[in-house]
Amino acid sequence: MDTSALLIAAEHGTSSNFNPLRKNGNFKKENIWDKYKMDTTMNPDSEETYKKILLKNGINTPVKNVCIKIPNFHGDQFASQCKLVTVEFADGTIPKLELFVKAAITIGEYAEQMRDVLMFEKEAQYFSKLLPEMEEFAKAQQGYDGFLEGLLPKCYYASDVLIVFENMTYQGFAMLNKAVLHDFQIAEAVIRTLAKFHASKSILSEAGEVLYGGWMQNGVDGAIKILSSKPTPGSEKVLEYLKKYETRGFLKICKLLPLDNQSCSMSLNHGDLWNGNVMFQLNAETKKPESCLMLDLQTIHLGSPAVDLLIYLFIAVDHEVRKKEWKNLVRIFYDQLGEVVIDKLGQKLKFSFEDLLSDFRTQIDIGFVFGMYSVFGFEALANIDGNAMNSEGSALDNLSSTIITSLDRTMEQKGSTFSENIVQMYNEVVDILSEKNNQ
């Protein structure tokens, strides 16, 4: 799916009914949420909840049993509490229905911050309103071939505190090891899917600092700590570069992302496209990943498509692959985007490949800063129980201190490697920017 194409079409009047966003890029609040607010009787731990959801989807078959389990996701569940639900029907000839459930965190300061930035509301609106309108628009286009259907898991129910999906592991999809960075083949599959996705309140704006500022600052502060305690050739230049983000760096990053001063048309960005938010269809014989779908639309926001590309390439892709192939992968994205927009939707693509490269370079710091998670952050997060975010007190402050404590434990053994890899990533940034200056 190319939501950027659809949004571009809406921007330029191609589809007058498809415009779920305000001019300033914020989600419409209005009374739309009355439709999606969850019935307080629908407890995510209750069998009756899922029976009601089945009825809402026209599934009237009597249910024999509903089994609700809590998965063992170590280091996950920072934005929600997950459950695995199996629905067994009275008619034994009907296959069981396997569901994946996300329930909003409800306790503590972090839960309040999640509500303030509309985390669940945005994903609920996407599946309940935005996606159906996109499908209606796309189906009216002569070249549409159903590409929307394979990009996201089927959603059975979406509200401001509960979202229920089909469990795609039973459809041959699997989550790859999140600690292993993607090679070119995998990256190409993700990039092509992202191009189909690109066409809400913007998370990359000052309003998002209360929640996302801490995540970014962890990367900056951790990198500064590593480079200062384990200096390596070139680390002084990187320290100087990073120190401009040492205090409230998130706000400074946001200044790189103005909606009214970028080369590309605005797209609906995923906002958190990394290893943990992609599932892959594995080849039945080789068991190698082929096509993929994206998960977790809680951070969708308006911006240049370069933002999603930067986040994915710097967080999820192998360093050597990114260094050698970054422009090729951006070109694959652009070509796939053009194929969807022009051939399948019959629209015009409103920006050039050079425009996309311009935004990529102008906004590259967001990739570099969040890329610190691929250098050392994943290892630190692996030692954190995500359910800690559902506790009293300042969860983000606790998270930051836990990451720093984890770094302290591994600094003696891996600090020099971390430092060298940070410098290596910085040199990539310099090379990308220098290439533009030399043209």
UniProtKB/TrEMBL annotation:
InterPro entries hit by this protein: CHK_kinase-like, EcKL
Q: Which organism is it from?
A: Allacma fusca
Name of the molecule in the record = CHK kinase-like domain-containing protein
Taxonomy, top ranks, is:
Eukaryota, Metazoa, Ecdysozoa, Arthropoda, Hexapoda
Give every CHK kinase-like domain span: 163-343
